[in-house]
Amino acid sequence: METPPNVDAVGAAIVEVQGVSDMFTRMQRACFAKCIPGAKESNLNFGEVSCVDRCVNKYVDVHTLVGSKLQESMEVQQKQQEAVQQTAQKIDSFFGSSKT
């Protein structure tokens, strides 16, 4: 039984939201620990704001880069699998036609 395409889209959207939420939580913890280790005042000072800004930008840039590299890798892997399947079909058709 094949699942409807809209169910797959909903599942993919849920996974994407979970991934973004996880990235945000990790980024928040990492940048807070690095830039605001001992928050004693209610407002951030200029150095803390600058540190958080740089940390968040780097975290998002790296996350985007890793995501695009992963996507490229998955596309290459899919093309390789398709090539293997085509080769297997050619071999099957070659040996299948020689049996008769």
TrEMBL record:
Q: Where in the cell is it found?
A: Mitochondrion inner membrane
Q: What is its main location?
A: mitochondrion
- Please give the Gene Ontology molecular function terms for this protein: metal ion binding
The alphabetized list of GO BP terms reads:
protein insertion into mitochondrial inner membrane; protein transport
Known InterPro entries for this protein? Tim10-like, Tim10-like_dom_sf
Q: How does it sit in the membrane?
A: Peripheral membrane protein
Coiled coil location: none
An example GO CC term for this entry is: mitochondrial inner membrane
Which intervals hold domain Tim10-like?
15-72
- What domain of life is recorded for the organism? Eukaryota
Q: Which UniProt keywords apply?
A: Chaperone, Disulfide bond, Membrane, Metal-binding, Mitochondrion, Mitochondrion inner membrane, Protein transport, Translocation, Transport, Zinc
Instruction: Please give one Pfam family short name.
Output: zf-Tim10_DDP
What is the role of this chain?
A: Mitochondrial intermembrane chaperone that participates in the import and insertion of some multi-pass transmembrane proteins into the mitochondrial inner membrane. Also required for the transfer of beta-barrel precursors from the TOM complex to the sorting and assembly machinery (SAM complex) of the outer membrane. Acts as a chaperone-like protein that protects the hydrophobic precursors from aggregation and guide them through the mitochondrial intermembrane space.
Assembly, per entry: Heterohexamer.
Family per similarity comment:
Belongs to the small Tim family.
Q: What is known of its domains?
A: The twin CX3C motif contains 4 conserved Cys residues that form 2 disulfide bonds in the mitochondrial intermembrane space.
Its recorded name reads Mitochondrial import inner membrane translocase subunit
Task: Please report the organism this UniProt entry assigns to the protein.
Answer: Chromera velia CCMP2878
